[in-house]
Amino acid sequence: MTSFCCLVVGGLVSLLSGGASLAGNVSSMADLQKHVHEVASRVTAATVALVSDGGETGSGVIVSPRGLILTAAHVVGGDEIMRVVFADGRVVKGRVLGANFTRDAAMVQIMDGGNYPHVELGESDGLHVGDFVVALGHSKGFDPERRAPIRMGRLCTDGKQRFLISECTLIGGDSGGPLFDLSGKLVGIHSSIGPMLKINNHVPVSVFRRDWDKLLSGRHWGQLGLHPMADPESPVLGFAMMDVLGVDGVVVEDVVVNSPADTAGIQPGDVITHMDSRSLRSVRDMLRELGRHRPGETVPLVVVRKGTAYKADLTFGRRGDLMSGLKYQEQTQG
Questions:
Q1: Keywords, A to Z (predicted)?
Q2: What is the pLDDT of residue 27?
Q3: Structural domains in the chain (count)
Q4: 310, pLDDT greater than 90
């Protein structure tokens, strides 16, 4: 508890507004600390660590008594099963449901029956710049020696942009963890670290509300391989993809200019049915195949365009290089 108090009080001197004297802010500081403590005490049990088959770790938060978890899409990747680690160290299995990779939103369902601690969804669209928020997550993975660290900060944007941006300090392992308002309601999911540790992006809970049924049904769609929290040395394709009912293969939704897919001649509307002689029936299949390769490798694809199948060779790019190119394009166009 001592470390928690130091975290809150130490940050409040600079966070509280307007240059008023410290003595004049004591009441506000005490009230805010009380709010943060109450939020943390209610939501910590529902904040879980998620571990992939490959050992990569992220976070998530349970939002229903039956064990439905919201997390970030880049945390689940192409996995079908995740290990879910509770604050007390208990481990259960979770089945990956749907994922919107463009908005970095995903769902996981705990497979064991039970009545699980959970949090209430808030309204991210009602947030304002300057509102205080509370962030939890299993920084650097689950640690039995401590509970999920608590971070507090203010919002730099409201809930109507593509991402919420906050001052809450986040590091690796926090991805997929929850962001709460001071009433303890979930308003966002941690997505990516910004150019500084204290400028971070969160998926607004409104994104989950909008895509709820698709995520719950297990659909996967959106841009893959561009997430700034992902390994810069991993291979990248450079196109958005989606599953379409009745289509046996991965449908290309959009292609990044000057990406490996663009160079290989892939176009929006193409259906990719095979990679390196392996059949692809879904986005999840594509993700698994992507994990078998490295940047610089060339693989043959079978592509169906307007009913005609043809072969195309694609050379995987490096994620970090494509991210750098996209940032350069934004700067020159902005």
A1: Hydrolase, Protease, Signal
A2: 56
A3: 2
A4: yes
